[in-house]
Amino acid sequence: MNFHNNQTTFVSHVNVKVENLERSLQFYQEILGFDILEQTAKAAKLTTDGKTSILSLEQPENAIPKQGRTTGLYHFALLLPEKKDLADIVVHLSENGVRFGSSDHLVSEALYLHDPDGNEIEIYIDRDPSEWSWTGEEVAMAVDPLNFERLLKNRVPGKVWEGMPAGTLMGHIHLHVSELVKTEEFYVTGLGFDVVNRFGKQALFLSTGKYHHHIGVNTWNGVGAPKPPKNSVGMESFTLMLPNEEAIEETVDNLQKICVSVTEEEGRRIAYDPSGNRIELAA
């Protein structure tokens, strides 16, 4: 059940802008259990396994609070290895007085909370793919109540919180966009994703390798929503991991065919979706 490997294209890393790096690091370390892999005065790379960073924080110059009704980050989603890990985090958050929401999406079970700047975070565990229900190319998803009593039966009694599990992945990202027609063309024709769920005319869920979604996009902040200011809290960029360099070259060619320019910055390939969301292509 691995939809985040070198046979697929997936979101491997998210870079989030914050207003106060020190305050944010306290939250991400003490509440979410990340460790610092690298740190400078205005940025930090976070890790769960001590080797790989799946999340970075940066404090831009003259940072301003998160702006409403704009494109950008809706939430990033941390995928845990086992159901007991989600049960452990439920207890940990509760013991620390952290408010969170929850949902059963049929394909997954999830918690939702915000960091000190209002950036939304999903923490989830996948159900076994054999339990997912597909109709043609579309997977069934819902927003049902989470059964906490059943979930907490997976917890090891008396287990002490030890931080975010080492096998935690960046499971997916969900973005606010300004419209869906050009957005679908960008992610499907340009980047090679498949649409696996349509939420009316307001949202699309996209994946490779028959995952329930690696990327979600929605217009819930309004059709025509503007880009946020560069120095506002929110998402700076996310990284798409492709299978190999050949796949990157093919993707660049496909993007150029739909008139999307790809630039190179310090050896990294950078593209922007039609709503201005910044994407790094890596292999």
From TrEMBL:
Keywords: Metal-binding. The keyword Iron-sulfur does not apply. SUPFAM superfamilies: Glyoxalase/Bleomycin resistance protein/Dihydroxybiphenyl dioxygenase. CDD domains: VOC_BsCatE_like_C, VOC_BsCatE_like_N. Gene3D superfamilies: 2,3-Dihydroxybiphenyl 1,2-Dioxygenase, domain 1. Pfam families: Glyoxalase (PF00903). Residues 10-126, 169-283 form the VOC domain. PANTHER family: CATECHOL-2,3-DIOXYGENASE. This is VOC family protein.
